[in-house]
Amino acid sequence: MPRTKLIGAALALLLLLPSTSLPAFARKHSKKLPPAPAIQRMDERERAIHALNRLTFGPRPGDVDRVLAMGVDKWIAQQLEPGKIDDSALEARLAPYRTLRMSALEMVENFPPEQVLRAVADGKMPMPKDPQLKAVYTAGVARFNEKQAKKNAKAVENADLLEMNPADDLSQEMKEKRQEAREHARSRALDLMEMAPESRTQNLAAMDADERRGFWRALSQDDRDKLTSDMTPQQKELLLSLENPVAVVNGELMQGKLLRATYSERQLQEVMTDFWFNHFNVFIGKGAERYLVTAYERDVIRPRALGKFSELLLATAESPAMLWYLDNWQSVGPNSQAAGRAKNNGKPSQGLNENYAREVMELHTLGVNGGYTQKDVTELARVLTGWTLEEPRQGGGFVFREPRHEPGDKTVLGRVFHEDGHEDGQREGEAALEMLAHEPATARFISTKLAQRFVSDTPPPALVDAMARTFLESDGDIKAVLRTMLGAPEFWDVKEYRSKVKTPLEFTVSALRATDAELTRTQSVSDALNRMGMPLYGAQPPTGYSMRAESWVNSGALLNRMNFALRLGTGKLAGVKVDAAKLAGNGTNSETQADEVQRTLEQALLAGAVSAQTHETIAKQLSDPLVTGRKLDDPPKPVNQGAVAGLILGSPEFQRR
Amino acid sequence: MGITRRVFMKGGAMSVVGMAAVPGFLARAAMAADAAQPNRRLVVIFQRGAADGLNIVVPHGEAEYYTMRPTIAIPQRDVIDLDGFFGLHPAMSALKPLWDARQLAIVHAAGSPDPTRSHFDAQDFMESGTPGLKSTEDGWLNRALVATGDPQRDAPFRAVALGTSLPRMLSGQAPALAVGNVNDFGVAPRNPQAQPLANTFESMYAASVDAVLHGTAQETFDAVKMLKAADPAKYRPAAGVVYPKGRFGDALKQTAQLVKANLGVQVAFTDIGGWDHHVNEGASEGQLGRLLKEFSGSLAAFWQDLGALAAETVVVTMSEFGRTARENGTRGTDHGHANVMFVMGGAVRGGKVYGRWPGLANEQLYEQRDLALTTDFRQVMAEAVAQQLGNPRPERVFPGFRNPGFLHLLG
Q1: Chain A residues 505-534 with a CB less than 8 Å from chain B
Q2: Does B187 touch chain A (CB under 8 A)?
Q3: What is the mean pLDDT of each run of 10 residues along chain B (411 residues)?
Q4: Which of A75, A491, B138, B253 could link B172 by a cystine bridge, Cβ 3.0 to 4.6 Å?
Q5: Distance (Å) from the C-alpha of residue A540 to the closest C-alpha of chain B?
Q6: What is the ipTM of this complex?
């Protein structure tokens, strides 16, 4: 690398570092700075808790003792080899959700998006023969046609009739009609509730699409829940796919994620999958993305989460999810054959799309100060032309099309990429990505991000240095980098114990794990995450979600956490069951034992990290006669264990890991 | 005085840049103490998805408009004429009275100079206030609050976003509240039996040594108590005001509620999506028309609802970019460049379309496809911020922006 570039890079690095701890050579030449505080190592119990806090989604009851018994280092080594950990219990939980195992193509076929329904409605695609699929398509086409009719119609009055919103402006006649529709639906629902789930499902599926929709809309949410709560996921899937096929795909994806985070024994692998998904972020809300995310996480990210960075990078570059999200599938070389043909046919000119090229350098590899220029972005975009998709809106896969590839030499970061007899266009892109994956700036950027997630919002530079060195020396081996991190004294510095604020995902899942909750339906948890501002797979910009405290510590978020904690503890979170009595020790639960109940719960949920202040505050609440409503000679009332659990889960201590 | 939470957090968060930042912040805060004018407020509304400015404020006096949009142009007979050249989409009749009363101004061919046509990037740039720069961490509206605010004096409801999360525009050091639903703001707010639990949480956080959480929680509980005292359950919109059904109308209704409850709201934000009409946009009627009806109806209701408080309020709308001047092959429009902004307010010199109209001839278009930009959105926002937040230094709000001057649409 030219000397000027080296100095430039060094300067860039200096600008990124806190002034209190510059690398050694800089320190020698700058004025006397205060010495970095000495590292004080955690004791063994703290190490066990810290390892669980940082490397998993939170300790479950008994985890701390298990890790201590095995030995912290041994447990870590085990987590670094997820393939050798038995995860059959989790697999059993995931088994009912078909879409988790489907390819994008299969999903599109089984849960048709609007484009496919339009094609079938227009007769351009055949109706499937399979009876169940046929029912889904018939319903879908009916919905599509209705939507088209709505678009051309002036007003849609009938919709109001069955809407559940209070409509003060409905005429008396319409109000009566709506009331009648509701009563009719109610009585029909009661009949259906008498049936076994299987026959009920068949009965609902056999209804005419419009009739079913009208029926469903006229029901109260309570009745809807009653009709579906005892159905298997497949049955629910069928019903939902008749109304909103895409929702099945999304719903199962989110259910899968929450089940994995909560129950997988391969916790480090799940944490790393979450980390890399966020690093190589795609937004599920961008059109066809909905069908692409499942395979992205399952086939691209998770298998490589603890592998080689360059392989992960290349896999994301070729993934339909990324090609679609950052538009590279549309990018065409301005001087390519395809562009020429389009021009000759008088079609609008197809051109270069720089979106992916820019983000792959700025966000995936080098980092925003990684030393690339706008010219590099354009050149890299030219290199990556031709990387496209077959039928992107119908779940098609990656394909490289040479006619779309920009011909000629391209120069990225000073290196020339050219097509000669040996390198075809695709190889050019692979070579460019390989180069990026091995740049020192990339080693530094990735190490910084890992350290931010696992160590501190402002990680010690010496640690990042060491990790970056390992990255470069190990050819980007993620496991090796993690081992360097986990073997460093900075990771076990007592000042980092419980120092990071949990993100909403970390908070909710750690609460589910700490309470040993039984999750059957995760919708309420997804909803809570939406309210807390971290919808699953819902980070719109390619930067993904921030892992830093200040993004998540705001008033609304804090209230949402407290409310979530209370609802979880007191059993008011639909689809989630917590046995508070068991957590509290299953002992005699009476007011006189309030202190014991409280202590047991504190130990179970926070492994003794409850501060004196929090303990006192809760204790006061439990003994305050105004609170318990107890008058002088009343018999002792049972302690509300769920509420106490909720208070602990909502405490300031539980917000940190 | 002691270090406030915000300074503490800034110290923690800014250690990447260097500890020198802290004293500067304190000094600025001290200087800015006199600048703020608490009885004026600014409401910012983001139309997410790139609204089609050319069909919202229609240049019906421009012949090109009709040749470029054979099926989706708004016919002259349908347009609500404003000044002989421009007119409003017919679905926006609710705003005509405001125009006539000179409380509504329009800036056309306005927006962000950055060439990106990515929704995500463009929204990001418009919210961070530094088009082209991805590394900016906070939002311009938050910086405006920091530049004018005295941290000791921050009321919990000084900056409110109606929605489930804080928008990028309001993220930063100055505290801002994201309120999803005013009626649900609190610990189990609808359950009076949960009050002891709420109190316990409050005591817990008040006693906590965790400075960051302690500070935020304090603001939170103050806000909850303030809101309770304002008794949102009894609130009804002013007589004769009807908000259109939907999330946007709801958000504005709640904004009015918070403003009228005298909670010290100085800045409010909400957004409305659904503008990305690539297919079947519609003309006088259709998708865009329906959305505009909801949009303008909600704004008009909000205005009426505020009553006397409208005089101290300014509302500005923005969208990440406009749409192609020509319609595309699917009776819609694709991502474009310049767009239209609305500025409503007591202080507005309304009844006029501001900005230089670049024209729609092919050579006048941006990249021969979009409406060209003649007014940077930061020019409009800088004036709004200066006028309503008493911010004397707009360059703090939009670093790197060379302001050619205010349009004088306010004051």
Answers
A1: 530-533
A2: yes
A3: 30 26 31 46 95 97 95 96 97 97 97 87 93 87 85 74 85 83 82 85 89 84 85 80 92 93 91 83 93 97 94 96 87 90 95 96 93 97 92 85 92 81
A4: B138
A5: 7
A6: 0.78
